[in-house]
Structure formats: C-alpha cells, structure tokens
Amino acid sequence: MKVLLIEDDADTADYIVRGLRERGDLVDHAATGRDGLFLASDGQYDVLVLDRLLPGMDGLQVVKLLRESGVEAPVLFLSALSSLDHRVTGLDAGGDDYLVKPFAFSELTARLRALVRRRPLNQPDAELSVGDLTLNRLTRQVQRGGQTIELQPREYRLLEYLMQHAGEVVTRTMLLEHVWEYNFEPKTSVVETHMSRLRAKVDRPFAEELIRTVRGAGYVLAPAG
Domain Response regulatory, which positions (predicted)? Predict the structure, then answer.
C-alpha cells in the first residue's frame, strides 16, 4: 500500500511510519494539515491516515477540501476525540473510518486493508502485472507463472516500484529516493545488493528475464521483445 499519514504528534507518527515501512508499505508523512493537503492533492495514495486535531488546518477541513478537489482515496481518521458525535462528524465530513487513540497497530493495519479492499473498482493498481508476473497490493502476494515468490519487505517495495514504472528506465537515484527514502547518495551498494537478490527470486528460476540493467542509466522491468 502507498499510505499518506497526516499526524502532528511526533511519537505517534514515528510509531505508525516505522510499523508500516517494516511491513513493506510506502509511507509519506506530513505534520500539518496544509502539508498533508499538498501531498494528498499531488500524490496517488491507496489510503490516507489523518489526525482530527492538526495545527493550522484541522482534519475535517483537510478532508472536505480533498473531496471537493476530487481526491477519492479512502480516509481513516485517527483521533483521541472518542465521543459518538466526534465520530459521526468525522464520517460526515468525508472520512471512511474512525479509529480512537490509543490503538493497537494490528487493528490499524486491518482497518487500512479493509478500506483499500472497498475502493471503487475503477481505481487502478490494486494488482500490478507485467507479463506473467503479478503483485497484489492488498494481499502482498507476488506470483510468477502461478508460482508464489516470497520476498522480504524491502524486496517487495523495490519490485512494486519497478512494476509501477514498467517499461521505463528507473535510475539508482529514483530507487534510493522512493524505496529507501534517501535524499542523499550513500557510499554503499545497497541498491545493487537488493536488486541482485530480487532478480534471483523473480528471474533466475524462470526462462524469461524481466528485470534488465540499462548500462549507465539504471534498470527496466519489462517482458522481452
């Protein structure tokens, strides 16, 4: 899943971001309503997690503006405001679910999965396919030719990004920014190491190679021919 978290409490945000990323999810974080509105309007997210009480612009205003601008990604409100009136107000404003703090991380992820499953069928990318390779973003299952491929979280995120850009050359810098979320060039071969491991699982057991190196440019995932 690609998740946008809009949460001003640093400890809560760190807890959610770290937990989701350990599962292999892609997560962006904004600490204010205005920053969250900017990211949500510009990015394509599977689901938004939004605090009710935010500095500058509260969560209700953010959701109303997003819905007015045509953003249809499901919204999970996360708040210490626990009364029935608060929950109803959040849902009436355009939210799809409401989780009261404190919460169990397992319940948060279960609710996010449920929201993504309920997305309208015309929203793309619930399942990515390239040739005989498929990646289901809801179940996190990867298969090639009907054979299940077990991936580590970072390998999953790497493959997901490559499949989202199938047929395009993806540079090392792009991978560092979007998969590792680095904004600098590390003096390691982290990309090459993980790419080698991913190719060993996705390509090596099969007759056709899908992931290819473009010398001096990066990598491309596409069927041969």
Answer: 2-116
Read off the pLDDT of each residue in 166-181 and give the average, rounded to a whole number: 87
* Vertex 40 angle, CA 177 and 9, to 5°: 80
pTM: 0.60
Query: Does pLDDT of 183 surpass 70?
Result: no
Asked if pLDDT for residue 92 goes beyond 80, the answer is yes
Q: Which residues have CB under 8 Å from 20's CB, separation 6+?
A: 1, 3, 5, 27, 109
Q: Which of 172, 162, 178 is nearest to 222 (CA)?
A: 162
Q: Could you give the angle at which helices 105-117 and 10-22 cross, rounded to 10 degrees?
A: 60
Residue 186 pLDDT? 65
Taking the C-alpha atoms of residue 92 and residue 106, their distance in angstroms, rounded to an integer, is: 26
Torsions phi, psi for 36 (to 5 deg): -65, -40
